[in-house]
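I have a small job for you when you get a moment. Can you supply me with one protein entry, sequence and fold together? It will help me judge whether the discrete encoding reads sensibly. Write everything out right here, beneath this request:
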Amino acid sequence: MHEPLPPLLIACALGIEKLALRSGDRSGAAGPVTVLRTGMGPKAAERAVGRTLADRGLRGAAVIATGFCAGLAPGMHPGDLVVAEHTVDDRGSTPCEGTELLVKELVKAVPGRTVHTGPLTGSAHVVRGHERAELLAKGSIAVDMESAATLHTARAGGSHPVAAVRVVVDAPEHELVRISTVRGGISAFRVLRSVLPAFYEWHRSLLLPRR
């Protein structure tokens, strides 16, 4: 007999991100799945995730922060994937679980796409130019506005396994102004549609230590 899987909460900021996730393959879920649109920015993410995880039906839920991000490392391209080893912001670092498994499953789910691993920085504003170079010098490989807040809030609210997977929408050689009007945004949208099978395998793996 196996313990039942906890619910899975997938948190993203934008309507276009939620649309991509909801239009992906949802057939492989092994337990209840909630896709939450938090709104933009760390404060919005903190409020939305805290409120959602307070629901008794999501007690012990596994949490994945996802959506688009800015890549920081040279050679990154729109549509590349970032799997965080940990997220970091002004409040400190939040370690992620199952990074290696997520990489393995994303390679299968989105063949031909490069998957990067490393620290993912949280910012309260859109980061451009010299700020990106400074974050790269500190060791981060990507930046977004919600992942760090999402994972910090989940961990602060109880025993929640957490991870962060982001799709690069712009990078040092491909800096974009508006996601919805550029080719890189279309590429990132298509990739985000394909990640759910990897998320479900990560979620399912949470049972393994308790078998």
The CA atoms of residues 134 and 190 lie 30 Å apart.
